[in-house]
């Protein structure tokens, strides 16, 4: 068996052991509080690492590296504000949200909104938005994990036979993606994460997040050292990238002189070949069925930089069993034929003639991660479960350093990947596992690949388990228990939680059968949508006594409507997922502004909060002086 696979299986076994231990620890405790919040017992390390591991999703370890690989150093500007996200999220919401959830017994974000505004309708609306967006958010996490499983197991004859059996048993399922090995990897991951989330609950999620947090950090730092060593240092890498030109993207098919044998003919994905003096690489596996002479159309990438071509051809190219027939090749919209575009902003782009991250978007994304990260309900749930203020302060400092040690090295690693693993431009989301294998093999430590691949797998798993649990808790707690059957026994709540967990996992699995080219675009869309829907209502509800139910409903609906509308307008105008960006600013900026404006309008024109509600959350002095008049007799108490 592959030694890197053994290392990976050892890590997976440890995750399952932690789930079992957490189940034992939580036995006998209140099901709702324990299963969904771990009895509110997070310390500094647990809070920092579960917060960080949940935030560092497949976007961080597949989508983000793929964008670095595709566009170069400009991604340092794109991610810069993520370093201050812990300060914004924990500093703005942490203490007050924890106090409110303890006071009311709330265990979910919709629960908090229900109690703060005495509005079951707002809780149900927030649950629906939460479930919808998080299900979409799960798709890139499942996709990354399936790619990793395929990378780990794809060379195994047993795995290939099992993938073929899946294709024969459920042909429609395999046909949706066209790659039965990917589908099998997807099913394996789905089964693993559903079982351990269902079995262990919030405590299992936190414990595995702590493990995964350490794995992610160690994996990134090891990859940084190996990548810099193998490219000859950062200066050498920068000099090579300075002369690099973007590739051309196209398609090809492969032909035989006579019919393929009974076993068919297969050419592996990532195979180099020449055609009329052009150097190309396959972006998909090539398969010619038995009795046929021609393969289907597959994606190919043509390398354009002369020095890169010379370096690749220094090693003999493989002998192909079939003759390539290259169809069309298209140049990048920005950067084609120009050197140095990977070293400066805006970066090269295959579709946008303005390049990747022009000035308006650079400004937008400096605010994007601070706002989007702060507005994530998954982050808010963690802030309901820590032990005290000292824990919060130390976690803020720890997590800021943790993110700096994760994201800045990733930019360097995957700029180096342009030199070490060229030609993956059609499938850039595969760059993380491909880089892990290459670095380990070049270092002569093959088992290390299993550990390095565990880092992105940990990122996907830590996000998946958290989001599945959030959807489950919102549906079971806020819809079923609070609105349908308040007297439901713990056994029924447990059974419903397990059923919802399985259902959400199946929905995400089906969605991952259609993986997008850039997973990070899905992460950006759903992360922004969650932020514009939830940050305004939650933050204003914590600090503005007069903020009312009507204001919260208007804020949630208005912000999300503007955000979604800009994406819909972009689809209608461009026929793609690129949104309309007024004045070059991202839809999140406009959606968040609209959320705040709608909050003020709804509060100003809607029914005011009853005094009893203001007293409950803000004290008697504010309830008796609702306008904040400094001359009021009780103003000193405000």
What is the fold's blueprint, element by element?
Elements: H1 3-26, H2 31-37, H3 44-55, H4 58-71, H5 75-79, H6 85-104, H7 109-117, H8 120-153, H9 157-169, H10 171-177, H11 180-231, H12 234-242, E1 248-255, E2 265-267, E3 272-275, E4 278-282, E5 286-288, E6 298-302, H13 306-313, E7 323-330, H14 359-374, H15 377-382, H16 389-420, H17 431-443, H18 448-484, H19 490-511, H20 519-543, H21 549-574, H22 587-605, H23 611-618, H24 620-624
Antiparallel strand pairs: 1-6, 1-7, 2-5, 3-4, 4-6
Instruction: Supply the helix-strand structural class.
Output: mainly alpha
* Sheet having the most strands: 5 strands, antiparallel
What is the global morphology?
Answer: globular
Strand order of the largest sheet: 3-4-6-1-7
Residue share in β-strands = 5-15%
Give the uncertain stretches in residue-range form.
30-41, 628-638
Radius of gyration: 26 Å
Helix content: 55-70%
**SS element count, helices:** 24
Distance between the termini: 68 Å
Q: Averaging pLDDT over every residue, what do you get?
A: 81
Work out the number of β strands. Answer: 7
Quick recap of the structure?
By secondary structure, the protein is mainly alpha-helical.
What key attributes describe this structure?
638 residues; mainly alpha; five-stranded antiparallel β-sheet; two-stranded antiparallel sheet; 24 helices; 7 strands; 66% helix; globular; disordered C terminus
Description:
The protein is mostly helical. The chain is about 65% helix and about 5% strand. The chain contains 24 helices and seven strands. The chain has helices at about 5-25, 30-35, 45-55, 60-70, 75-80, 85-105, 110-115, 120-155, 155-170, 170-175, 180-230, 235-240, 305-315, 360-375, 375-380, 390-420, 430-445, 450-485, 490-510, 520-545, 550-575, 585-605, 610-620, 620-625, and strands spanning about 250-255, 265, 270-275, 280, 285-290, 300, 325-330. The strands form two sheets. Strands 3-4-6-1-7 form a five-stranded antiparallel beta sheet, with no helix packed on it. It has a two-stranded antiparallel sheet with strand order 2-5. A hairpin with a 2-residue loop joins strand 3 and strand 4. The model is unreliable at about 30-40 and about 630-638 (pLDDT under 50).
């Amino acid at each position: 068996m592959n030694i890197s696979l053994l290392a990976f299986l050892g890590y997976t076994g440890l995750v399952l052991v932690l789930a079992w231990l957490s189940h034992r620890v939580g036995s006998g405790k209140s099901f709702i509080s324990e299963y969904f919040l771990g009895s509110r017992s997070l310390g500094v390390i647990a809070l920092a690492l579960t917060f960080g591991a949940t935030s560092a999703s497949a976007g961080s370890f597949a989508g983000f590296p793929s964008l670095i690989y595709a566009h170069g150093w400009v991604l340092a500007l794109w991610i810069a504000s993520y370093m201050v996200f812990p300060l914004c999220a924990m500093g703005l919401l942490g203490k007050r949200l924890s106090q409110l959830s303890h006071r009311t017994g709330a265990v979910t974000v919709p629960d908090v909104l229900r109690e703060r505004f005495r509005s079951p309708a707002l809780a149900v609306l927030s649950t629906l938005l939460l479930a919808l967006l998080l299900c979409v958010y799960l798709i890139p996490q499942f996709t990354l994990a399936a790619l990793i499983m395929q990378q780990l197991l794809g060379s195994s004859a047993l795995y290939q036979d099992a993938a073929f059996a899946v294709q024969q048993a459920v042909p429609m399922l395999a046909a949706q993606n066209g790659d039965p090995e990917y589908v099998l990897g997807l099913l394996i991951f789905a089964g693993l994460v559903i079982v351990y989330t269902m079995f262990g609950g919030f405590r299992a999620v936190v414990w595995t997040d702590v493990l995964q947090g350490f794995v992610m950090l160690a994996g990134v730092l090891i990859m940084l050292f190996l990548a810099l060593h193998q490219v000859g240092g950062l200066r050498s890498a920068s000099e090579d990238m300075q002369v690099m030109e973007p590739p051309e993207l196209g398609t090809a098919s492969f032909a035989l002189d006579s019919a393929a044998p009974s076993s068919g003919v297969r050419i592996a994905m990532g195979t180099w070949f020449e055609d009329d003096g052009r150097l190309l690489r396959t972006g998909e596996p090539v398969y010619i069925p038995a009795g046929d002479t021609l393969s289907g159309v597959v994606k190919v990438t043509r390398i354009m930089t002369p020095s890169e071509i010379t370096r690749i051809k220094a090693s003999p190219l493989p002998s192909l069993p079939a003759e390539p027939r290259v169809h069309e090749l298209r140049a990048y919209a920005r950067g084609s034929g120009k050197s140095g575009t990977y070293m400066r902003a805006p970066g090269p782009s295959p579709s946008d003639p303005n390049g990747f991250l022009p000035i308006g978007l650079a400004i937008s994304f400096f605010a994007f991660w601070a706002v989007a990260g702060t507005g994530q309900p998954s982050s808010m749930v963690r802030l309901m479960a820590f032990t005290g203020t000292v824990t919060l302060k130390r976690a803020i400092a720890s997590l800021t350093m943790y993110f700096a040690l994760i994201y800045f090295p990733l930019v360097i690693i995957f700029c180096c990947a342009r030199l070490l693993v060229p030609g993956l431009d059609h499938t850039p989301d595969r760059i993380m596992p491909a880089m892990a294998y290459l670095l380990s093999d070049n270092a002569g430590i093959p088992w290390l690949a299993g550990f390095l691949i565990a880092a992105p797998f940990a990122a996907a798993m830590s996000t998946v388990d958290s989001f599945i649990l959030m959807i489950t808790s919102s549906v079971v707690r806020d819809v079923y228990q609070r609105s349908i059957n308040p007297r439901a026994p713990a056994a029924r709540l447990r059974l419903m939680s397990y059923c919802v967990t399985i259902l959400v996992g199946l929905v995400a699995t089906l969605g991952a059968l259609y993986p997008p080219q850039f997973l990070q675009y899905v992460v950006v869309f759903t992360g922004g949508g969650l932020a514009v829907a939830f940050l305004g209502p939650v933050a204003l509800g914590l600090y503005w006594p007069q903020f009312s139910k009507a204001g919260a409903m208007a804020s949630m609906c208005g912000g999300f409507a503007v955000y979604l509308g800009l994406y819909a307008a972009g689809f209608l105008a461009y026929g793609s997922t690129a949104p309309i960006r007024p004045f070059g600013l991202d839809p999140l900026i406009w959606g968040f502004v609209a959320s705040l404006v709608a909050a003020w309008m709804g509060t100003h024109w809607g029914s005011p909060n009853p005094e009893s509600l203001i007293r409950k959350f803000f004290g008697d002095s504010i309830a008796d002086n609702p306008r904040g008049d400094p001359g009021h007799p009780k103003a000193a108490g405000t």
